[in-house]
């Protein structure tokens, strides 16, 4: 029994830890890593495992092992602006490393600056739908995140894409945040929006956009992708689950631009097609695709809406 426990402890970052790392890298968000229980097992093998993962293609992060206060200041100043990933080794039993971790949390700058929030609020609204349901007499309710702009009660918007790629006009009847009614929701805030009319066929992954936008869904899109792992190689015809923001759908690899296939740790431009229905995606969005043990990341470079090219 003890031998089995020791094997697990010395295995390093495996399984779900790599899954979580792949997701945060795909979303292109800053992060740091804390290795615990160093009073029981030396973190050497885990550090080597993490450094190898962070430096591979598709990630290209710079691991910084925090050893003193100077490292804390360096990590705090660069972690949100560069590809630096601070790594802390701590023990809750002996207290080793905890003081450095606390100091790092104190020097971290805010995730989104006031100027950035103000810039986002000036843009046309874009609300990503994560859930939808009907609440008694209230009507149809959409839960999600407002990524850009400002929405108030009575705002005229459009929702979609529908099965044919089109959008349908609606108006916001009421707004709730944390189950409390409010008049307005701003960029980077989550909310529940009640619509003024019932729309059949709504699904998670749709978006709410400004009523004056010429929005269309797409079935085809092109992305620059990096394969984090595949047992053999990815060829045209490969089907995979694609995650793009709030969008999650099976997509098929239609073509690979500069080669016949892509192997682990290789990068190429790939043409995808959604398998079931059109989605609203835009150039510059990050994506994560996975199928079994195969996984990769990328960025959308071109969108082919149902009525033309973007």
Automatic annotation (TrEMBL):
GO terms for molecular function: GTP binding; translation elongation factor activity. It is found in: Cytoplasm. Its main location: cytoplasm. One of its GO terms (cellular component) is cytoplasm. Keywords: GTP-binding, Nucleotide-binding. It comes from the Eukaryota. Gene3D superfamilies: P-loop containing nucleotide triphosphate hydrolases, Translation factors. This is Uncharacterized protein. It comes from Psylliodes chrysocephalus.
